[in-house]
Amino acid sequence: MNNAEEKPKRKIIHIDMDAFYASVEQRDFPEFRGKPLAVGGSPDGRGVVATASYEARKFGVRSAMSSKTALQLCPHLLFTKPRFEAYKEVSQKIREIFSRYTDLIEPLSLDEAYLDVSEDKMNIGSAIDIAKAIKDAIKNELNLTASAGVSVNKFVAKIASDINKPDGLTFIGPSKIIPFMEALPVEKFFGVGKVTALKMKNLGLFYGSDLKKLSENEMQKHFGKTGKFFYQIVRGFDDRPVNANRISKSIGAEDTFENDIDDIEVLKKEIEKLSIIVYNRLNVKNKEGKTLTLKVKFSDFSQITRSYTFINYVTDQKVIFENAVELLNKIDLENKKIRLLGVTISNFYNEENDIITFRQLNLFDDFEEAD
Ligand SMILES: [Mg+2]
């Protein structure tokens, strides 16, 4: 008898608000409705888009894109400043809706959470019905839409919520998981960034079924720790529980470049972009930290980190940016090319007593977009 089959299946829902910041702005300000809108960034081309409305996405505007690029794609794009207080308030209301059905809630960000409804407080039983009820409540009470993915593990639930966005509900049952993972293009695997996807394709790996041809060791050799994880996931194994007690210890962002970089000005631009993303994440997660860490990975895959601890908590994006550049300046870059940069803030205020509301993403926090 196979142990894996004996275990009772979990019922996992992944809820993801649709274009969250932009949708809240369009809800609250009628002049933005039906218009291509960027939250974050600026019409003078500076800064980075945090979230784009669906009207803007039609032009190719995306999260983490520079305003300059966004304007090239969509010249009549409107910009508005993020209102984190408003998003936090909505997020708390969404959380309250979740808590009617379960206490096993693992928020990934302001607009996204895993729910374990294996046992639900209302005795509804069907995870699909619970997902529907949650979506309805969000629509009726908050005038916003969410997409839901329902499955027996977190990985599949998360991919499922993305399938019929916006306002989608996708169920992938146990018998569908294996064929679903086999047919999934590699770039759709949650956690596979553009660089990893390219690497996979260069190895002739285009779909989940291709990944399955590699042994666990081969996967690890090519893709490191995540390779091992993908080996499991493509076979439908994901035992990670919905963790309602995870507290973030750090918040960061990193980027692997398509081509290795040695131009200091380009590197500075990258650091600025990462600083803005980190600053926004600190804001939405209500965090202030004292320690700044810069991670640098070179073209030969060797990696170093440099940290600086401030006397006071960092509350300014410019401070993050300027000090991260300082850290970079202290590294000997002679004859070296850089393939990845990362900026992280840790050493948070009042870590122990932090209200368990905003938690770190488990595996791929660094790659999460504010969608
Ligand atoms: Mg979202």
UniProtKB/TrEMBL annotation:
<feature type="domain" description="UmuC">
    <location>
        <begin position="12"/>
        <end position="193"/>
    </location>
</feature>
<keyword id="KW-0238">DNA-binding</keyword>
<dbReference type="InterPro" id="IPR001126">
    <property type="entry name" value="UmuC"/>
</dbReference>
<keyword id="KW-0460">Magnesium</keyword>
<feature type="binding site">
    <location>
        <position position="111"/>
    </location>
    <ligand>
        <name>Mg(2+)</name>
    </ligand>
</feature>
<keyword id="KW-0808">Transferase</keyword>
<keyword id="KW-0479">Metal-binding</keyword>
<dbReference type="InterPro" id="IPR043502">
    <property type="entry name" value="DNA/RNA_pol_sf"/>
</dbReference>
<feature type="active site">
    <location>
        <position position="112"/>
    </location>
</feature>
<protein>
    <recommendedName>
        <fullName>DNA polymerase IV</fullName>
        <ecNumber>2.7.7.7</ecNumber>
    </recommendedName>
</protein>
<comment type="subunit">
    <text>Monomer.</text>
</comment>
<keyword id="KW-0548">Nucleotidyltransferase</keyword>
<dbReference type="Pfam" id="PF21999">
    <property type="entry name" value="IMS_HHH_1"/>
</dbReference>
<keyword id="KW-0963">Cytoplasm</keyword>
<dbReference type="InterPro" id="IPR053848">
    <property type="entry name" value="IMS_HHH_1"/>
</dbReference>
<dbReference type="GO" id="GO:0006281">
    <property type="term" value="P:DNA repair"/>
</dbReference>
<dbReference type="GO" id="GO:0006261">
    <property type="term" value="P:DNA-templated DNA replication"/>
</dbReference>
<dbReference type="InterPro" id="IPR017961">
    <property type="entry name" value="DNA_pol_Y-fam_little_finger"/>
</dbReference>
<dbReference type="GO" id="GO:0042276">
    <property type="term" value="P:error-prone translesion synthesis"/>
</dbReference>
<dbReference type="Pfam" id="PF00817">
    <property type="entry name" value="IMS"/>
</dbReference>
<feature type="binding site">
    <location>
        <position position="16"/>
    </location>
    <ligand>
        <name>Mg(2+)</name>
    </ligand>
</feature>
<dbReference type="Pfam" id="PF11799">
    <property type="entry name" value="IMS_C"/>
</dbReference>
<keyword id="KW-0227">DNA damage</keyword>
<dbReference type="GO" id="GO:0005829">
    <property type="term" value="C:cytosol"/>
</dbReference>
<keyword id="KW-0234">DNA repair</keyword>
<dbReference type="InterPro" id="IPR050116">
    <property type="entry name" value="DNA_polymerase-Y"/>
</dbReference>
<dbReference type="InterPro" id="IPR036775">
    <property type="entry name" value="DNA_pol_Y-fam_lit_finger_sf"/>
</dbReference>
<dbReference type="GO" id="GO:0003887">
    <property type="term" value="F:DNA-directed DNA polymerase activity"/>
</dbReference>
<keyword id="KW-0235">DNA replication</keyword>
<keyword id="KW-0515">Mutator protein</keyword>
<comment type="function">
    <text>Poorly processive, error-prone DNA polymerase involved in untargeted mutagenesis. Copies undamaged DNA at stalled replication forks, which arise in vivo from mismatched or misaligned primer ends. These misaligned primers can be extended by PolIV. Exhibits no 3'-5' exonuclease (proofreading) activity. May be involved in translesional synthesis, in conjunction with the beta clamp from PolIII.</text>
</comment>
<dbReference type="InterPro" id="IPR043128">
    <property type="entry name" value="Rev_trsase/Diguanyl_cyclase"/>
</dbReference>
<comment type="similarity">
    <text>Belongs to the DNA polymerase type-Y family.</text>
</comment>
<dbReference type="GO" id="GO:0003684">
    <property type="term" value="F:damaged DNA binding"/>
</dbReference>
<feature type="site" description="Substrate discrimination">
    <location>
        <position position="21"/>
    </location>
</feature>
<dbReference type="GO" id="GO:0000287">
    <property type="term" value="F:magnesium ion binding"/>
</dbReference>
<dbReference type="GO" id="GO:0009432">
    <property type="term" value="P:SOS response"/>
</dbReference>
<keyword id="KW-0239">DNA-directed DNA polymerase</keyword>
<dbReference type="InterPro" id="IPR022880">
    <property type="entry name" value="DNApol_IV"/>
</dbReference>
